[in-house]
Amino acid sequence: MPSGGDRHARDLIWGRKSDALRDLNRRRVLRAIMVSPGTQVNLAKFTNLSQATVSGIVQELQRENLVVVDGNDNERGKKVSLSNVRGVAIGVEVSYDTVTVAARRVDGDVDRVVVDWSGRGAEHGSQAWMRECVQLIGEVVRRTGLDETDIVAIGLGIPAAVDPRTSTISQVAWALDWERGMDPGARLQEHFPGVPVIMDNEANFAAYGEYLYGAGRGTETMLFVKSSTSVSAGLIIRGLIYRGRHGLASEIGHLVMDPLGVVCQCGNRGCLETAVGGARLVEQVRGAYVGYRVDLPNSLANIVERAKSGDLLCRRVLQDAGRNIGIALSRTCNLLNPEKVFIGGELGRAVELVIEPAIQTMRLHSLGGMFNYVAPMTVEASELGLKAGAQGALAYALTVHHIRPN
Ligand SMILES: [Zn+2]
């Protein structure tokens, strides 16, 4: 693995203070190359700049020895990537029971990403996950051949809604020791002075990851449902994350399925999450097996494994979860009519057990044109799986134009 060049990527996109249009455009192109080395045509699409502007900037960057342009196609079809630049982007996904950290060198291929997990997520308290997070970041950065001084930006995905205007929590699960108005991103930044930390809901980042690096590439509208301990979703419209006024858009887990149902951690009743959330599924299987088996499943991952190896009860519980998700998705899709739907999180690992029943149910309850007309909507498992959130977080942290004040 190359050792990196002399120029720091962080200085290139954050260091300059000039707001002159040319400088803003230059930083925009640099960010786009850092997110994904690509052709000038793709860079123009990603940045919303004209091809002539991108071409001029790429020539300037070539003269400064900051990019290399290669490939045998015509000028605009050649791939532009960074050279002589040191930098690594970090993405963090905090879930209820895990912290996932991804690191990718901004001068490398998008596939060369280092990902690591820890078993201490949000439910262990903010002290615990923050400590795990800082340690994992150090480890994955070293595995890219760089060190912490080379971190360009950190994206932090959390299992709570984040107000897009204030970057603070607008709603959180009551089970966690977080409060409305809190800013965990600022706390993480204390460990990495000078590095911008960009925070959002973890399902929003998972959707963004799938859109940029997974099976969602090139889609106009896509919905990503993350179904693990909690159930949430992210919506991408023309390359942008749709958040809504308070960051509460796409909260599919809290669509009411049964107004008289079980009380949900959000304070309402009968939400989708009370039917298909990880804890509920584990409870169902354990309840049915009480008195019969000693090795009761203790996690959703455990249930998925057992179902795959033929356990009939675990299979039934997952199939029912799929049907419930299908009902919630038909309502959502009748409202949004997306091009593609992805199911990720733990349940995304059980394609024929969860996704097939979900599709069958959607065919019964969605408007038929979505499935039967030209270029029908597709519903499939996430390609990036459990890595989607951390990868989307690192990409988004490179993309945004504002910096959290230090
Ligand atoms: Zn709820």
UniProtKB/TrEMBL annotation:
Molecular functions (GO terms): kinase activity
Entry keywords, A to Z: Kinase, Transferase
Gene3D superfamilies listed in its UniProt record: 3.30.420.40, Winged helix-like DNA-binding domain superfamily/Winged helix DNA-binding domain (1.10.10.10)
InterPro entries documented for this protein: ArsR-like_HTH, ATPase_NBD, ROK, WH-like_DNA-bd_sf, WH_DNA-bd_sf
Superkingdom of this protein's organism: Bacteria
Family affiliation: Belongs to the ROK (NagC/XylR) family.
Protein name listed in UniProt: Sugar kinase of the NBD/HSP70 family, may contain an N-terminal HTH domain
